[in-house]
Amino acid sequence: MPPAAGRGTLSGVKIYADRFPTAVRQLITDLLVVAWVYAAVRGALWLHDLVQKLAVPGQKLEGAGGGLADNLAEAGGKVGRVPLVGDELTAPFERAAGAARSLAEAGRDQQELVDQLALALAVAVLVFPLGLVLFGWLPLRVRWMRRAGSAAKLAAAPAGRDLLALRALATQPLGRLTRIAPDVAEAWRRGDDATVDALAALELRQLGLRGGR
User: Of 185, 206, 155, which is closest to residue 1 (Cα–Cα)?
Assistant: First the structure.
């Protein structure tokens, strides 16, 4: 009896197993992965915000330096209007305003450095947990989905059980195969219906799918 079409599938792709224990295990694993990624992202954002607090002195330095430079420039402009000696009196104000602008620039540089550090640390924190997901869990999940989708299609095809039986012979442990028949390969070559059905059911069961006659 072929498995119910559409169960645990999305656009023809098998997402979850048909058998309850396997499907529950997959669902729990997926939820744990989602929680793991969420926690990693939240942790990275928390660290980013924490490091960003180091930019507060730079912000204050930029604000103070910029404000002082503006005030000195304004004072120098007023002093410069004094007849005869205005130009001489203006020079110290201009030098002081330049020094204040340097302080403001140093504050901006410090903020940029902190921004880069915060971003680098956040990315570094995300590399390991996301790497486990992308290169550990995801390939295994996609591999199961492909195998399960292919097996489900074969189970629904008229001659699919023969191919499933052949796949079982090639991939299943020898101990499981010999429990079906002492000389399971010979029985399969003879086309023994019971052996072929048992092999096909073994392959489907290994993937958490229902099927077989």
Answer: 155
- Asked whether the beta carbons of 110 and 58 are under 8 A apart, the reply is yes
What was the pLDDT predicted at 139?
Answer: 95
Please state, in angstroms and rounded to a whole number, the distance separating the CA atoms of residues 71 and 75. Answer: 6
DSSP string for 140-164: HHHHHHHHHHHHHHHHHSTTHHHHH
pLDDT value, residue 213: 44
DSSP string, 8-67: TEETTEE-S-SSHHHHHHHHHHHHHHHHHHHHHHHHHHHHHHHHHGGGHHHHHHHHHHHH
> What count of other Cβ atoms lies within 10 Å of the Cβ of residue 127?
11
Q: What is the pLDDT of the chain when averaged over all its residues? A: 80
| pLDDT tens per residue, range 148-191 | 888 888 887 767 888 888 888 888 888 888 788 788 888 878 77
Percent of the chain with pLDDT over 70: 82
d(CA 211, CA 202): 10
Q: Residue 101 — φ and ψ, nearest 5°?
A: -65, -35
Q: How far apart are CA 9 and CA 82, in angstroms?
A: 86
